Amino acid sequence: MTIEPITGRYLMVDVGGTPHRIYFEEAGRGQPVLCLHTAGADTRQWRHLLNDAGVNEDYRLIAFDMPWHGKSLPPEGFQTQEYMLTTDSYIETVLAVVDGLGLDRPILAGCSMGGRITLQLAAMHADRFAGFIAIEASDFQPAWYDIDWFHRPDAHGGEMGAALVSANISPYAPEAERWNTLWMFMMSGPGVFRGDLSFYTRDDSLIGRLGQIDTARAPVHILVGAYDLTCTPEDAKRTADAIPGATLAVMDELGHFPMSEHPEGFRPFFVDALARMKR
Known about the structure:
The protein is an alpha/beta fold. The chain has ten helices and eight strands. It has an eight-stranded mixed β-sheet, sandwiched between helices.
């Protein structure tokens, strides 16, 4: 029998004047690293790194479920609301978690929509973080699909979401981890993936802010999978080129969900990224 070192707890925070009960998991000790999941998923995407004894020896990894995701329930009265994630509410949520956990300039690591907001925070709140690891992140891509398909009475939104993202998983990903990754999308709450994609495919405000990012204050490292169709290596390079001092690594055998779909392949790139984050 094995008991994993991950500890899960709940944190009460206010976002936009509304109380939220946020679920988070952590493991390790040392410099804190706050990890953000992708659209339509949750903290389980980071479970392999949270269980990595080599990483946990020097870093305290913390991952949390955004409101409406995973074990973070929607706010009271959600049944009368439409979930639509915005840049402002996303930033406010991340900073509320940083404050609620008493984190002193953690490293911020986010993937996909989490990578996009990581770059937004690098532009607008660099003083709050020691460095930024933006995974599968770029300035902006408009949707190449109709996001309304993910919340319809005649279609299963979770299965639709899993079908869409399946093309973004590398063919090198182990079969078990491919399906574990897809399962998280199948479990997504009604309308949640659609609300996340509204932020990801319609908010282009980062484009004008890239030049504001000062990597002398906090380093920025972008990671992108060669098999990512949503955020291509070309998209990531365009974004890195617009940030003076940013660095970029293309992960040859990985896709859009590297920490989840192919944890062994992702590990060396993430360890290298952490080494670039110096206080």
